[in-house]
Design goal:
The protein folds into two domains: 65 residues, no CATH class; 79 residues, no CATH class. It is 51% helix and 9% strand. The chain contains eight helices and five strands. Strands 3-2-1-4-5 form a five-stranded parallel β-sheet. Strand 4, helix 7 and strand 5 form a beta-alpha-beta unit. Helix 3 crosses helix 4. The longest helix has 14 residues. 36% of the residues are buried.
Length: 162
């Protein structure tokens, strides 16, 4: 099972139109039906804001949307503390509150995270972990969430869509 960040859903929606990639979208429907693809509530809201039609498509096919519960919120607070984020002072180049909740959802649910947020070349060289993006946060030993881009998720399926 995989938790999806909005970036990956939006990338797929924008670059693989359903009319031209019907086998790909049939596979996505199957992933939804088998509960292999879930969306945190924050990702769903971002998708709805970016493209209501995309959001509706996923809702119509019954994508499971996971709202943050107490376990997820506590994990998000723990991750914020690891990053040194106090008083909601997020760095504009790093993760935001929604990102942390999405990572926490993957951690609590023991799932990998599919995100197309950019991989930073050498995050350990940064002066502050507040600048870490989703893949760097996931890669921290204290977080330990597998994070893969959409293309790796597609390739690992072994599916042929054309």
């Amino acid at each position: 099972m995989h938790v999806f960040d909005a970036s990956s859903i939006i990338l797929a929606w924008d670059n693989y139109p359903e009319g031209q990639f019907p086998l790909f979208w049939s596979w996505i429907k199957q992933e939804i039906t088998e509960n292999k693809l879930i969306l945190p509530g924050q990702a769903a809201k971002e998708i709805e804001k970016h493209d209501p039609e995309c959001y509706k498509w996923f809702k119509d096919f019954g994508v499971k949307i996971i709202q943050a519960d107490n376990k997820i919120v506590l994990e998000a607070v723990r991750i914020k503390n690891i990053l040194g984020i106090e008083n909601d002072e997020y760095h504009p180049k790093g993760v935001g509150e929604n990102d942390i909740i999405i990572i926490a959802t993957a951690k609590v649910r023991k799932m990998s995270l599919v995100s197309n947020e950019g991989v930073q070349a050498n995050p350990k060289s940064m002066t502050s972990m507040k600048k870490y993006k989703i893949p760097a946060v996931c890669d921290l030993p204290a977080v330990g969430v597998i994070c893969v881009p959409l293309i790796k998720y597609i390739r690992s399926s072994g599916g042929i869509f054309g």
